């Protein structure tokens, strides 16, 4: 089994790279040791390999279950929340996340979740053929072992500082990538643990999901503007490596989404299209089901934003298929 790459940034933040699937390759867990124990931020997806990685990392760092004071989650995605319940079973520690994030975890994997049928139904309505839509239920069910057990959680009050590693961090709530997503800002140093709200090199996925945020792209862009008010010296993201060009990255992401919206409008100038038609024009079809799902959810998020801005409109044909055209 692999020893995960561990980087001590010598400022109270230890980065542990926990393996995950292509194309992200790893998720960053951050360990913040403090006088009252270690805080683990985003422990990564639960897989047998990752359990081994954690055992090796703890041995290397001289950490036992009793040293883990708490686990803090930026958001509910399996690559961040996954190991939290498993680590809680061993340590008995408290797991913190936002209440909104917890509701999203329940929507995705809670006992009454119907997402494995609602998402394919949404996609079929937007023109996704059966060869793709038919794969989704099994694909979504495949995440359940990665998030089992879902931890017992305490809710973070976004209006109050959270103590981690002997420092007081300000929770910053931004939606769009995930409803209720929290970043944690330490004003004295300008450190920001930003989860997937802002990533270097990668544009964080913005997904329209049934039963979730109905305007995710607007939420995401508002979140970027909110984060722009911070003075960030180093951002510690959920994927790739810590980076210092935070404000530049915010600008690039805002521009990227405006360009994507303009491109979608140009496609609809040529002819009306379904969501799936737009998705294929933008992303192609050489994608696995995982990437296709993200591409489709992101296409629908952009179409919704153009509708909100009054640039395009949608109508439903007989048989329930939705089309988009210029307004
Ligand atoms: Zn995420
Ligand atoms: Zn992630």
TrEMBL record:
Counteracts the endogenous Pycsar antiviral defense system. Phosphodiesterase that enables metal-dependent hydrolysis of host cyclic nucleotide Pycsar defense signals such as cCMP and cUMP. GO terms for molecular function: hydrolase activity. Keywords: Hydrolase. InterPro entries: B_lactamase-like_C (IPR048933), Metallo-B-lactamas (IPR001279), RibonucZ/Hydroxyglut_hydro (IPR036866), Sec-metab_biosynth-thioest (IPR050662), WH-like_DNA-bd_sf (IPR036388). Residues 26-239 form the Metallo-beta-lactamase domain. This is MBL fold hydrolase. The keyword Hydrolase applies. Pfam families: B_lactamase-like_C, Lactamase_B. It catalyses: 3',5'-cyclic UMP + H2O = UMP + H(+); 3',5'-cyclic CMP + H2O = CMP + H(+). The lineage of its organism: Bacteria, Bacillati, Bacillota, Bacilli, Bacillales.
């Amino acid at each position: 089994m692999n020893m995960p790459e561990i980087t001590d940034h010598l400022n109270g933040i230890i980065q542990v790279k926990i393996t995950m699937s292509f194309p992200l390759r790893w998720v960053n867990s951050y360990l913040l040791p403090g006088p009252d124990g270690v805080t683990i931020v985003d422990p990564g997806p639960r897989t047998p390999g990752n359990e081994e990685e954690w055992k090796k990392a703890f041995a290397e760092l001289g950490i036992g279950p009793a040293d883990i004071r708490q686990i803090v989650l930026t958001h509910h995605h399996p690559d961040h929340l996954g190991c939290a319940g498993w680590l809680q079973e061993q340590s008995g520690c408290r797991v913190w996340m936002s209440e909104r994030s917890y509701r999203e975890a329940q929507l995705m994997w809670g006992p009454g979740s119907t997402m494995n049928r609602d998402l394919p139904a949404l996609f079929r309505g937007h023109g996704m053929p059966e060869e793709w839509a038919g794969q989704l239920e099994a694909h979504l069910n495949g995440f359940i072992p990665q998030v089992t057990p879902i931890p017992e959680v305490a809710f973070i009050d976004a209006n109050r500082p959270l103590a981690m590693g002997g420092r007081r961090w300000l929770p910053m709530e931004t939606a769009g990538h995930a409803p209720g997503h929290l970043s944690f800002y330490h004003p004295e140093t300008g450190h920001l643990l930003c989860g997937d709200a802002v990533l270097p090199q990668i544009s964080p996925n913005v997904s329209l999901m049934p039963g979730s945020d109905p305007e995710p792209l607007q939420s995401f862009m508002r979140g970027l503007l909110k984060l722009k008010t911070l003075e960030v010296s180093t951002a510690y993201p959920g994927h790739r490596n810590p980076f210092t060009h935070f404000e530049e990255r915010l600008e690039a992401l805002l521009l990227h989404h405006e360009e994507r919206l303009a491109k979608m409008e140009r496609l609809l100038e040529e002819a009306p299209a379904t969501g799936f038609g737009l998705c294929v024009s933008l992303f192609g079809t050489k994608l696995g089901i995982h990437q296709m799902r993200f591409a489709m959810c992101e296409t629908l998020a952009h179409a919704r934003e153009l509708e909100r801005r009054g640039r395009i409109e949608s109508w439903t044909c007989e048989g329930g298929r939705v089309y988009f055209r210029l307004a």
